[in-house]
Amino acid sequence: MKVLRVCLVAAGLAMAVTATAGQVAYVDYAAIMQQAPQIKASQALIKKEFAPRLKAIKKKMKTLHSLALKLRSMGPGANALKRASALEDYQKTRKALQQEEQSYQTTLRLRRSQLRDNFRQLLSSDIKTYAQAHGIDVVVKGGGIYETPGVDLTSRILKRLEQDYRQAKAQADDPKKQ
To answer: Which residue would you say has higher pLDDT here, 154 or 92?
Structure first.
C-alpha cells in the first residue's frame, strides 16, 4: 500500500513537471546531514555543552560502585545498623544517578532536536534560494530511479552551507559586527 502511494505521488509529480516543462533536481539529504559544517559544529557544541554533566554522572557512578563494594565487604556478622545505613546510602545514590541519567538523556535529545530543526530550516532556505535563483521548479529530497549528474544539487547546496557557516563564524568572531 505504501509503495502504491509512493508510485502515485511520483507519477503525479512527473505529470505536473511535464505539464509545466519545469526543471527538476534533487538533493541527497543524507549526504548533507553527514557533511555539512553546521552539523559537525553542532556535534562539537553538544559535546562541550554536556561534558560537565557527563563528568558528574561518571563521578556518581564511581561513588555508587564504591558503595556497592562496601556493602559486599560487610558480611553476615557485620553490625546491622551499619549495614542498613550503607544499604540506604547505596539506594539513594543509585536512585539519584538514575534520575540524573534520565534527565541528561532527555535534555540531550531535546538539544539535538533543537539544533537539527535549526539546521533543517537553514537547509530548506538555502535550497529554496538556490532553486529560485537557477530556475528550478521542483527539488526532491533523495535520488530517483535515474538522474543525470546535472540534477544533483547536493554539492552545490553543501557549498552554500559552507559559505553560510563561514559567514556566521566570522560574525560570531568579530564583535564589531554584532
So the answer is: 92
